[in-house]
Amino acid sequence: MTATISGAGGQAGPGGPVPGRGEGSTPTVHGTPSANGHTVPLLDAAATTRCRRRVHLDHDPSAASAPRALPDPALEQRRADVREHRARVAETVAGGQAAAWRAVPEGLPAAERARLTGELVAGGAGVIGGAVLPVDPAGRRGSAELLVRVPGGGYVPVIVVRHRITDPGAGAATTLLTSPFPQLAVVDEERKVRSQPRDLLRLAHLTRMLQTVGWAPAAEVEGADRGGVVGLDADVVVWHDLRAGHWPGDRSTLEEYDERFADRAAVALAAATGAEPLAEPSRVLECRRCPWWPTCEARLTAERDVSLVVRGDTAVALREVGVRTVDALADLDPLAEPPVPLPGTPFPDVVALARGWRRGLAVARRVERVPVYRADVEVDVDMESFGESGAYLWGAALSYPGGAREGDEPEGYRAFATWEPVPTPDEGRSFAEFWTWLSGVRAAAERTGRTFAAYCYNEQAENRWLLSSATRFAGMPGVPPVEEVREFIAADWWVDLFAVVNEWFLCAQGKGLKKIAPVAGFRWRDPEAGGENSMRWYRDAVGMDGAPPDPAQRERLLGYNTDDVLATQALREWMTSRAIDEVPLASEL
Hints:
With about 600 residues, the chain is of the alpha+beta class. About 35% of the residues lie in helices and about 15% in strands. The radius of gyration is 27 Å and the shape is globular. The two termini are about 50 Å apart. It holds the Pfam family RNase_H_2. This is TM0106 family RecB-like putative nuclease.
């Protein structure tokens, strides 16, 4: 069985409901000739989960010189990680299906690889690795990590991804990785499907390509219109029925895909041929990582577009009733009925955000005094991880607002790190040292009758790696039991300052630490400080690309982590000082 997918249909507004993760490309009109004489733009599955305006810009020749963001420094790392993951999966499947396994060589032109894939299909290979499908007349292009033959003839796709596709539970249809055939799937009593819409849409994309070229099973064949996914754990194949109605309106994945693909294909064709654009810019969640954001931001700012304050479907709904600009939103009566339903944020807050944006304010207070838990002994914590591979650094800054005492640990920053490439058992050693130190500071405070608190910014990442580290390195000296970590996370003195900001401030320019801490007067020493850049620095720091480890990049990472923990300290002190009076109250806006 598959999980129910939430969200609106693919044509609901400029952004669509399921932001994609693909990277930008040079605008192109390359494609396949169509019956009407136009060149059909080539689209891969990622187009169905991307913002519609991004699809436009990707295919608009006139956008070739438009400003774009600098390349994502972590992109190459993610690609390398995916390649390694897929290679390991292919090796496992090949070992389990030695007689059936055939692979298409890498490094050849796509057309040649598609031809070789066709030869293997014609020969009835049981499992085809690295398959490339022929571009179809609709402009679809794509490849599958595996094509598996089903009884009765025909092939279904299996894709290999580097994210989690199941959660603890029951109900997923799975097979062993070494037996990746849909007819062998059984209901798994230990796993339930984790919703990953982009995986389902890619399977649908490949299924339509297989049907077009005549390689798919007949509709009545067992396993037809099914697709498999191998996730980060690479222990099973999770099978999805692409005919099942798990999307809004009881649409099947294939129906949802067909609607989205037709829409994106129309957007791309209009862009490629210079026709009236079918997608205009609007700020959505995807904008944060989109290479076209500088182009869209400039236009949205010039037009003072309402999506700069309220994004996504809410912005679309407001435009439909004539509220097209931030100024128009700011001029509304906050005590009146909202012009459209506003999920999440109360209407007075939305109007206040618009008024704050108009005045150039980053934040406004909801209350006179911001309630922040303070203690005699305080520790600010920040963790650095390398993708899904592991947490290589736990940084902590110790301070004594209640005054230091004889025998106390010295104030200041300390780092608990491993410089062996993660994952590594040495990660457990650094985590154990961090936990032992933190527990000692807390115990000393309790022993001397003082209060204690530890702080982070957006606890989701820290909590995840606290629990993961305790689980993965259980039994190592100094590693706490998982239950002890759970008690720490649940305690009142483990304080998420992001939650404080989210509850007590209106933020017109974002709620990230690097947006909020500068309001408190804090500045990072490294102008390139950021999570994505730290991925590149880490590669150099541990010598992941074959070069010797770079000590300078290790120091850079330590400086970056130091500033992150000092930023949370500065933010907390600012929120509980008289300086907070300089921040306007939302009610004053």
